[in-house]
């Protein structure tokens, strides 16, 4: 009977943690993350026409998507639809540089958002990047392959 009394509290805790995980990234995080991606060697491709916006919106926002090319080469795409309305595109070296930057970031100013470390660590946990084939939109790979 006591175990059933704890069930509502556990359910509430689970729902609260799921809602916090779905919280959109803060502006401070987006500013800093765009800087880190560029510093790591990712190239910025702005979605400034209809085809670019369609391809960008086909990608999940704020997640890396892996595109395996012929010959074993890999490209990482990272859509940023809120901050710069662009996609960051980079290879293995840029991705590893980015992970290294996030693992040991530069000294921070005093006005860093308190949620920055939490949001940045969400990008580093595991290797759960999506494959470009799993997105389900066949316009993404042809559109961005011109920028590889």
Provide an overview of this structure.
The termini are far apart. This protein has one domain (24-145). With 148 residues, it is of the alpha+beta class. It contains six helices and five strands, in the order H-H-E-H-E-E-E-H-H-E-H. Strands 1-4-3-2-5 form a five-stranded mixed β-sheet, with helices on both faces. The chain is globular. Helix 2 crosses helix 4. The protein has helices at residues 2-21, 27-40, 50-58, 92-103, 116-124, 140-145, and strands at 43-46, 64-68, 74-80, 86-90, 130-131. It is 47% helix and 16% strand.
Lateral arrangement of strands in the main beta sheet = 1-4-3-2-5
When the domains are counted, the total is 1
Count all strands and give the number.
5
First and last CA, distance: 61 Å
What composes the largest sheet?
5 strands, mixed
Q: Which residue ranges are poorly predicted, with pLDDT under 50 across at least 5 consecutive positions?
A: 14-20
- Indicate the proportion of strand residues: 15-25%
């Amino acid at each position: 009977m006591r175990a059933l009394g704890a069930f509502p509290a556990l359910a509430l805790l689970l729902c609260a943690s799921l809602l916090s995980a779905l919280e959109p990234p803060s502006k401070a995080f987006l500013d800093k993350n765009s800087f880190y991606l560029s510093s790591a060697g990712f190239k910025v491709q702005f979605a400034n026409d209809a085809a670019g916006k369609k391809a960008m919106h086909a990608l999940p926002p704020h997640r890396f998507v892996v595109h395996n090319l012929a010959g074993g080469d890999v490209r990482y795409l990272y859509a940023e639809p809120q901050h710069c309305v662009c996609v960051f595109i980079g290879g293995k070296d840029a991705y590893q540089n980015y992970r290294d930057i996030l693992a040991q970031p530069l000294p921070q100013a005093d006005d860093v958002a308190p949620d920055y470390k939490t949001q940045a660590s969400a990008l580093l946990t595991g290797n759960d990047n999506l494959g470009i084939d799993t997105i389900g939109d066949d316009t993404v790979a042809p559109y961005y392959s011109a920028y590889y």
